[in-house]
Amino acid sequence: MSFRAAVITFPGSNCDRDMAVALERAAGTPPLRVWHADAALPDRLDFIALPGGFSYGDYLRSGAMAANSPVMRAVAKQAERGVPVLGVCNGFQVLTEAGLLPGALLRNAKQNFVCRDVQLKVENTQSLFTAGYDKDAAITIPVAHHDGNYFANEETLDRIEGDGRVAFRYLDATNGSQRDIAGVLNAAGNVLGMMPHPERAVDTATGGTDGAILFESAVKSLADA
Ligand SMILES: NC(=O)CC[C@H](N)C(=O)O
């Protein structure tokens, strides 16, 4: 069965092509490329990816304008129906701004742009995105962001921790994120936002394949369903 994925491009997205390549490698078929101004998405999708970059220049607040793009209403509807939605970096910022994930991404604690490989601990191996990892595995994935400092109030943090919704945690302090949270799931487990870029870690020639496991997990979860 073919895996029908869509990659959304906002004005300023710059990781959409890498995301499409990562999905095609895992699925064997290229994803649909969707412009943010398209208000409709195909009915039968198996995966939606919001890539990294600088939507609308991130001038107002990272992800704030993109969260109000026409396509986001369709993304929210599909998320509600259980379609897997992955937001990476700017995509994570868009998902929090759209209210599809809790919390917010603030300016990095040291006010700097952090661009390097980081080590992550895989906290949740139950989700469709993370089932292929070993529990508590340390993986290497690159980050490149200015606004990756995850913030939520204590009650929210306790709730998402208690529900096992922290997918990934930084092993070293990276950007000031509360409880070193690098990736968060929604309550239903079908929406994942993460600051590190798994689509940049899908080839041994360019920094390893720890990110490929995420895309392969999603493809396998559909095949097993
Ligand atoms: N690579 C990215 O997606 C960057 C995201 C965001 N604009 C930031 O700098 O925080």
Automatic annotation (TrEMBL):
SMART domains: GATase_5. It holds the Pfam family GATase_5. It is found in: Cytoplasm. Signal peptide: none annotated. InterPro entries: Class_I_gatase-like, PRibForGlyAmidine_synth_PurQ. CDD domains: GATase1_FGAR_AT. The keyword Methyltransferase does not apply. GO terms for molecular function: ATP binding; glutaminase activity; phosphoribosylformylglycinamidine synthase activity. Part of the phosphoribosylformylglycinamidine synthase complex involved in the purines biosynthetic pathway. Catalyzes the ATP-dependent conversion of formylglycinamide ribonucleotide (FGAR) and glutamine to yield formylglycinamidine ribonucleotide (FGAM) and glutamate. The FGAM synthase complex is composed of three subunits. PurQ produces an ammonia molecule by converting glutamine to glutamate. PurL transfers the ammonia molecule to FGAR to form FGAM in an ATP-dependent manner. This is Phosphoribosylformylglycinamidine synthase subunit PurQ. The gene is purQ.
